Amino acid sequence: MRISLQKNIAEVYGSVPFISIIDGNSGNRRYPCSSKILLKATFQKPNLLNSSPACTNISQFGNNMLKIDLRLSATIHGFSFHIGDSKTNNGLRYHSAIQKNDAQFYFLGYSSLLYGSSKCSSSMYKGLAGLLNKNVTTITIYVGNEFIRVTNNNGYIYDVCSSCLFALNGQPDSEGPANEEIYIGINRPISELYQSKAKGICSAEISWICS
């Protein structure tokens, strides 16, 4: 699936099983790479409930690993990218809680922030210094159960496996239903509580990695 966000309306080419469009909004005609889209990717449970051994090897995830390739404009602003395993993720640490499994990762201007879920007693927080700057043109993100890897065209690599991250294997949730899905906001936060003026992602390609 390829998504172009350069015009006023997001243009989607092709489709991928288990990935659906939730909302597509117009952008600002004066600014290229500002059209917005919200998607949902539904994961399939891995054969083994304990996915920890797979955290060291992306190929072991099979079609339970999502790959997102982003092409950036020369200037990025606001919540240009946002992923989370709760539909109420809004980029704030304390959002409209309906789930404990609510990890999220997002770009805010040239900052990139990773928050663990509310179920962790000492909340996981990580700022990915060096991921975003004016020399970065492409970013690739891999998301799996309790796993994320982020790379850019300058050789930056960050990955982590933690039970505080995305709960995509039907893990129980004390506040709401179990998760098997990720929400993806491009040039917008997932839960758009206010009018987002984000811009900066010109195109995205989304696929499942299959072994």
TrEMBL record:
Designated name of the protein: Uncharacterized protein
Phylogenetic lineage: Eukaryota, Metazoa, Spiralia, Lophotrochozoa, Mollusca
